[in-house]
Design a protein that fits this description.
heterodimer; A: alpha/beta; two-stranded antiparallel sheet; B: Glutaredoxin; five-stranded mixed sheet; about 40% helix
């Protein structure tokens, strides 16, 4: 009887441990009241769900995408003029993404100090991006839509996930058009601002 | 005896299962209640018979950015008052913000009151994961105990009206 009880307890412990692990895996994020109750929480997602197609040291694939503010922006237009930070985020109206670009919005001086422009990109369409980014205040950087053909640029860079959204990824491209830094981040977490700025400092 | 143990184990399992699947979170700070232990990231200042106003913010939150000048005005008003200066402390906790990010926010808005970093969201979770900005008013009693008298989401609006409300609700002399 004692042996049975111990076996049962061991099973309980194991099962309990798995459940606690599930419990601890709940997503952690702080959400601004700016979005009210309009944020859809997809829960914890597979951290990375794509295979990168570019690497540091190679020329960044060029692209042209429509901007929320109107017109089109090509990566190549910054060649010889500005360093470029591409910030891909998975989707509008989701928790971590909604609290990423507003942070970049108050550190324009840090980008300027490193002669860098920021391009925010998602696979959402323009009307969705318009509504969403309006909640962030006036953004100083262009927001681009990689909606149609769906996720073409994300696909080119190898960061289109199997469910059709982009990874949470940062690419730093220097004035010569060469990729100098890549961070395909855990989709559930916001990349560190400090790391991004440190990488920009290395461009000098 | 073993049946009782089985029963307790199954109940515990169900509680964990329900809690986990429903994403259980701690409750938001309740008026009339006390703050949970927020150490090691933050320890409540203890101005005797005074008040601590805590702003839960994030440098990534547009409303916190918009509210920052208003919160600075509140701090300036408190500092300018001989009566309130020693009674009211204002602090901010940057949830999900590293020390670096909190410092960026401090410099951007020239903030002169203490800001704390809660980079791993531990404090945020203990406080029931409030949206930001969120303001908590805490009255410190003469025996060192405390009581929450204000707990609210969103910008506080008019500075004078908010400060008067803090004084009235806390009952500080």
């Amino acid at each position: 009887m004692k042996i049975k009880a111990n076996g049962f307890n061991a099973t309980m412990l194991l099962f309990g441990g798995v459940l606690i692990a599930i419990f601890l895996a709940q997503p952690v994020f702080a959400l601004s009241d700016a979005y009210k109750e309009n944020i859809y929480n997809p829960g914890v997602l597979k951290p990375i769900d794509s295979k990168l197609k570019v690497k540091v040291g190679q020329k960044a694939p060029d692209f042209t995408l429509p901007a929320v503010a109107g017109g089109k922006i090509a990566l190549s237009q910054y060649r010889g003029k500005k360093n470029v930070v591409l910030s891909f985020v998975p989707a509008a109206w989701t928790p971590v993404c909604s609290d990423q670009w507003p942070g970049y919005n108050i550190v324009r001086d840090m980008f300027d100090a490193h002669d860098a422009i920021l391009l925010g990109i998602t696979v959402d369409n323009i009307p969705t991006l318009f509504s969403w980014t309006n909640q962030m205040g006036k953004l100083w950087f262009p927001v681009l839509s990689d909606f149609y053909p769906h996720g073409k640029v994300a696909q080119q860079y190898g960061i289109l996930r199997t469910d059709g959204v982009a990874e949470r990824a940062i690419f730093i491209i220097d004035k010569k058009g060469i990729i100098r830094y890549i961070d395909v981040h855990d989709i559930n977490q916001r990349p560190s601002l400090e790391v991004l700025i440190t990488e920009l400092e290395k461009l000098k | 005896m073993i049946k009782i143990k089985y029963g307790i184990s199954i109940m515990l399992m169900l509680m964990i299962l329900l809690g986990g699947s429903m994403g259980w979170t701690a409750p938001l700070p309740a008026v009339g209640g006390v703050l949970p232990d927020l150490s090691p990231g933050f320890s409540l200042p203890k101005p005797q018979d005074g008040v601590v106003i805590i702003e839960i913010f994030s440098m990534y939150c547009p409303y916190c950015q918009k509210e920052a000048p208003n919160v600075n005005k509140l701090y300036d008003k408190i500092q300018a008052s001989q009566k309130l200066k020693s009674k009211i402390r204002l602090v901010g906790i940057g949830v999900g913000n590293s020390a670096y990010e909190v410092d960026v926010f401090r410099k951007k808005y020239s903030i002169n009151f203490p800001l704390y970093s809660d980079g791993d969201f531990k404090i945020h979770q203990k406080l029931g994961e409030p949206r930001t900005p969120y303001f908590i008013g805490v009255k410190i009693n003469s025996d060192g105990s405390h009581r929450i008298f204000y707990s609210k989401l969103g910008e506080f609006g008019d500075v004078d009206a908010f400060l008067a409300e803090m004084v009235r609700l806390s009952g500080i002399k």
